[in-house]
Amino acid sequence: MEQDDESMTNTCDADDPTYQPQNEKVINDTAEENTSECAIIQPSISTLPPVLPVIPVTDSGIIPKVHNVVSSVDLCCRLDLRKIAFRLRNAEYNPKRFHAVVMRILQPRTAALIFASGKIVVTGARSESDANLAARKYARLIQKLGFNVRFKNFKIQNMVASCDVKFPIQIERLYTSHSQFASYEPELFPGVIYRMTRPRLVLLIFVSGKIVLTG
Predict the structure, then answer these.
(1) Is the CB of residue 202 less than 8 Å from the CB of residue 213?
(2) Where is this region: Disordered (predicted)?
(3) Is the pTM value of this prediction over 0.90?
């Protein structure tokens, strides 16, 4: 099956000068002062937009370990949840508790929430490729029950990863230096919550050196 398949039955789916910041008007004191046609005035610092902190890129050798990838896909058809729960193994459906079928497979080890609208949410994958493979397996199982399934709009919704920098982190100093992007309330949560904008991530940073990344 392909992600944008129309039918699950057909496929398995300069040189310009650059001036350094200055606080004064640039005036040429040489004999060419009278021939100069322009002068540069540096804007007031208060008028400049806030600048994101610049974090140097280094080869630290730290590679975050992915623990969970959450993805979604649209099967583009209405589903009979009772039929799915009755006909498929490892499928549970209790409409009084939750209006979706909960189904699990072992390869890759994941769980899926299957909704009557045809939407599926897959959790527990350890990589994007595993998430895609698992979504396709759920779609194929449902298709075999006679539903007119199509595999559309597969998307990674969220990822959770962690790493260990192997040294203690002065989280109070970190919070003070980056308070524009971080929050720290030790009486409520023991770590600094740091929100990055590029890429859009949320980091939970602990004094032990452990970091949890979500986004």
Answers:
(1) yes
(2) 1-22
(3) no
Task: Please write the tens of the pLDDT for every residue from 69-111.
Answer: 999 999 999 999 999 999 998 999 999 999 999 999 999 999 9
Q: Are residues 69 and 130 in the same domain?
A: yes
SS3 content of the chain, % helix, strand, coil (to 5): 15, 30, 55
Q: Are 159 and 69 in contact (CB under 8 A)?
A: yes
Task: Judge whether 78 lies within some domain.
Answer: yes
DSSP states along 30-45:
STTGGG------PPPG
Domain end: 117, 133, 157, which one? 157
Using alpha carbons only, give the angle 71, 74, 79 rounded to the nearest 5 degrees: 120
Q: Are residues 127 and 108 in the same domain?
A: yes
CATH number of domain containing 115:
3.30.310.10
b/e code 89-102 from CB counts within 10 Å (16+ = b): eebebeeeeeebbb
CA 9/CA 183 separation, integer angstroms: 50
Residue-wise pLDDT for 120-136, tens only, equals: 999 999 999 999 999 99
C-beta atoms surrounding 56 within 10 Å: 4
And the tokens for 127? 């990589």
> How many residues are recorded in the chain?
215
